[in-house]
């Protein structure tokens, strides 16, 4: 027996490179936004990347915070039958735990580490808290 389901909305969270400081990354980001913007089911959230003194590469800042806040808000709204979180960042563990206090089910998806074992702390927290966890092998 197969269960039919449909994705209603995809919320995508990314850092946004500064086009002046990194034109190549800026162009890739613009191209991604344009491509994703064509799909009405994709809602992109882009936070400016930080370029610090002496830092070789920029840092995403605020992306995890925005995702965590929106995750809890979506669960509390009861607007979705289920929320699927595809992320491995352990910074989202407190938000995932708050979602568990709501009536909205949360499913965590993660990439496997190449040995069929998820390689991130968020997955381990989800397993301990009885989330449904699936891993995907990178090929």
Automatic annotation (TrEMBL):
Gene3D superfamilies: 5'-nuclease
Domain of life: Bacteria
Basic and acidic residues composition bias: residue spans: 29-41
Spans annotated as Disordered: 14-41
This protein's name: NYN domain-containing protein
């Amino acid at each position: 027996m197969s269960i039919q389901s449909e994705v209603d909305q995809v919320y995508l969270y990314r850092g946004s490179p500064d086009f002046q400081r990194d034109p190549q990354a800026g162009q890739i980001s613009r191209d991604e936004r344009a491509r994703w913007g064509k799909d009405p089911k994709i809602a992109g959230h882009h936070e400016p990347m930080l370029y610090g003194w002496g830092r070789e590469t920029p840092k995403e800042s605020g992306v995890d915070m925005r995702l965590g806040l929106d995750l809890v808000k979506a669960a509390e709204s009861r607007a979705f039958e289920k929320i699927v979180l595809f992320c491995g960042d352990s910074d989202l563990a407190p938000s995932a735990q708050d979602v568990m206090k709501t009536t909205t089910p949360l499913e965590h998806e993660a990439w496997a580490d190449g040995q069929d074992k998820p390689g991130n702390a968020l997955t381990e927290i989800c397993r301990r808290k009885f989330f449904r966890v699936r891993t995907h092998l990178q090929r």
